Amino acid sequence: MTAATHSTLFPQVPETADAVLDGLDPEQREVALALTGPVCVLAGAGTGKTRAITHRIAYGVRSGRLQPASVLAVTFTNRAAGEMRGRLRQLGAGGVQARTFHSAALRQLQFFWPKAVGGDLPRLLERKIQLVADAAARCRIRLDRNELRDVTGEIEWAKVTQTVPADYPAVVAKAHRDAPRDPAEIGQIYAMYEQLKRDRSVIDFEDVLLLTVGILQDRHDIADQIRSQYQHFVVDEYQDVSPLQQRLLDLWLGDRDNLCVVGDASQTIYSFTGATPDHLLNFRTRHPGATVVKLVRDYRSTPQVVHLANGLLSQARGRAAEHRLELISQRDPGPDPVYTEYADEPTEAEGTARRIRDLIAAGVPAGEIAVLYRINAQSEVYEQALADAGVPYQLRGAERFFERQEVREAGIALRGAARAGGNDSLLDDAEDLPAQVRAVLSTKGWTSKPPAGSGAVRDRWESLAALVRLAEDFARARSGATLSDLVAEIDERAAAQHAPTVQGVTLASLHSAKGLEWDAVFLVGLTEGMMPITYAKTDEQVEEERRLLYVGVTRARLHLTLSWALSRSPGGRASRRPSRFLKGLRPGSGSLGTVASGGSGSFERGAAAGRRKPRGPVLCRVCGATLTEAGAMKLMRCEDCPSDMDEGLYERLRDWRSEQARELGQPAYCVFTDKTLMAIAERVPATGGELSSISGVGARKLDRFGDDVLAICAGGEGGAGVDES
Questions:
Q1: Could you tell me the pTM of the whole model?
Q2: What is the CB neighbour count within 10 angstroms for residue 451?
Q3: For a Cys staple, 56 with which of 7, 32, 664, 706, CB 3.0–4.6 Å?
Q4: pLDDT, tens digit, for every residue of 568-582?
Q5: What is the Cβ-side half-sphere exposure of residue 162, based on CA atoms within 13 angstroms?
């Protein structure tokens, strides 16, 4: 990592305004100094855009040219807004508003609603899917679960593109958009949804923007009041702005031009939500005198990863491709990307899990590894493979760090110890702040060594260990800091959702990985029909799929593995082809241009599959149908075929598993998954060979748990413990 994008967790607050500029590269410094007029920052992946714009704001505040309360910085996620607030605070620029579009609009709407409309603001609908279901029922239109989700997405798209129900069918046709159902039916459901909202006095998140826009358009006195408050605007991820958000931004600005936008057209991946890069690409047309700065020094990824990313975009077409940024890596060389072809999806997942286990054994923290896929439905087979390999993982979008029970309990304990001060006997032998924190958290489950395995106990320990690391970094950065100071820091971080790092391999869709980065990234399932996705039919849709893969590639700092499977299930026909986007990039796939040629990396054909005997198709033992789903293959039968499971045996196995999980400090699935236990209870193995033939019972688990399981199947109780040696 370089000084241009990375700093210590608790850097010293710069003493002067000029000190804020220290460590910026020439282009980042140019951004920071451009404090007036329209500014457009074209920032490639990993080029330190957040660093540039936060230092710009901080320099303006510290130099006295910007008043903190007059700046509004907006972005698209609470996480990004929290990170921005945290960085500004560390630069001595507290008091600047950094929010999402929705939270900024909601704050204004709540304040001005009594004045503009009167009465209380209608209740905000947290989730609209149930109301959409009610609307469909009123229209006598039946929607299954997937259709319900898709129609809800269509209503959201219509609202952010400012499309009213009556116009929806025509607008969809003009946009060549593939609607999940007959557009006339969706328009009908949309109209009924709006009617039900009015009847029930509720509003949704899109209404927050629409109503704020309406008030600012109709009430010039309120618009003037907001404009007198906010004089300077910064918009991050500007390529993701929707027409509705742009309209709100225009109303905030009025006739002023103190606007700084930051974005990268090559990372436009949310057009299905109404996002469009047109506002970014047209910025210089709308603002002819704009200052334009390009950030292309990539501090995140190695030259090998950057070479692949540049090669991927070199094949792109369309307007966004015409404005692509050629990244230049600032890091030392690293390993070449690895391309791996597998026989089938389960083998791909197992091979990925083995590689991850090897990386962790080599010293790569689990929290610095990610498996990224195109759709969430792909996660199950990787969850299963990682569980079977004993590798801890976390699904992206899980509970926020500061909302975890153990973190809340730790905060209460630290706050109590800080109030007690020298009167707390726990702190008698603690020589410094980290020792005090370790002493307090030891009462909540923290130990100097982590518990064995993964799961609930390990998750709790990791949360507490993250707080201990936070205390150690804080003490190094703030000489003489007290426990009260640390508690105040934790409270500020909780308010900003600026969480410390927790370990566990991340499983995430490519869309949800935007804005994140890891030391090692596995891009899986890269076949035609999945990347690009099968419903990407127009040239524009295919190009967005290419950009999505580009986002995935640029998440990797050091290790990058790209893989695909030739068939869905074991023994299936090897009819799949690797993604067209890899042509000219992976070794042996031909060349498509000077930048893409010379594809670097190693290509492995069936590398992991070669370790096992080829598998034939898995057939249902009840009806004989070919099985394709991971869970069905474990059971050796279709999910809806009759089960001959011994319910009593299944319950005994579950009780045994719970005891094993407690002793190992692992979640139950790391012993055996529910499906594996069901398969055991259905087949009642009598020998080790019969047990090992059940999917999910590998050699390691057979050696560790086999005797117990066979004893339970024979009518015994199983062993009382496990040997971790």
A1: 0.70
A2: 17
A3: 32
A4: 877 778 888 999 999
A5: 12
